[in-house]
Design goal:
It comes from Lacibacter cauensis. By secondary structure, this protein is mainly α. It folds into 2 domains: 44 residues, Arc Repressor Mutant, subunit A (Orthogonal Bundle), CATH 1.10.10.60; 143 residues, Tetracycline Repressor, domain 2 (Orthogonal Bundle). 21% of the residues are buried.
Length: 205
């Protein structure tokens, strides 16, 4: 029997269905049957396109990472002033992760299990994020007296933690504060402005 050719339209429908399920249930709560039901296909056809949930998630993650990481790298290495970089970083990061909220937790889990393998899988021969220009820029701004004294590393950590943590802790916020999906998304849209304002106000002279 001739091997059935994979149809691009069906594959994309599966990927979109998987994104929807992963957003609702997370990587570990999702089942292949959930994804098949969301895509309107049977489970056998789903397994024909993707052998496992892990491979399906890996495909989605790589596509999302390909959108996020180059944008972050471009911001950090641009010739923008420091305040503009902080604003752009928050906007670019949150914009991508709102549509792919499983990204931060997945990255953390994978990095903790095998950081060397994970970074090789994500980056391969592509350019890795390099914050050295951004860190040097902070140091120079401090030395020139343009901003309050702060460790470049600490400022970078503040920026990353304030953008990443709400997505990692999303279930806690939703459960304890009674936020639905729309309310959480709206709050994250607001954080595109709130985080830069908070950080810039903390270092502005």
């Amino acid at each position: 029997m001739a091997k059935r050719l994979k149809d691009h339209t069906t594959e994309e429908a599966i990927l979109q269905a998987a994104r929807n399920v992963f957003i609702k249930k997370g990587m570990y709560g999702a089942r292949m049957q959930d994804i098949a039901d969301e895509a309107g296909i049977n489970k056998a056809l789903l397994h024909y396109y993707f052998e496992s949930k892990e491979k399906l998630f890996g495909k989605i993650f790589e596509e999302a990472a390909a959108h996020l990481f180059p944008k972050v790298n471009e911001v950090l290495n641009s010739d923008d002033d420091l305040y503009t970089k902080i604003e752009r970083f928050c906007d670019e990061y949150i914009t991508v992760v709102i549509e792919n909220p499983y990204l931060p937790l997945f990255v953390m889990n994978e990095v903790n299990q095998d950081p060397v393998y994970f970074m090789k899988k994500v980056w391969g021969d592509k350019q890795k994020p390099n914050p050295s220009k951004f860190l040097k820029q902070i140091e120079e701004e401090v030395q020139k007296g343009k901003i309050k004294p702060i460790s470049p590393l600490q400022l970078m950590m503040n920026l990353l933690s304030m953008t990443i943590f709400p997505f990692v802790a999303k279930p806690i916020f939703q459960m304890n504060l009674g936020l639905d999906e729309f309310q959480f998304r709206h709050a994250m849209e607001q954080r595109k402005k709130e985080i830069p304002r908070f950080i810039i106000d903390s270092i502005r002279k």
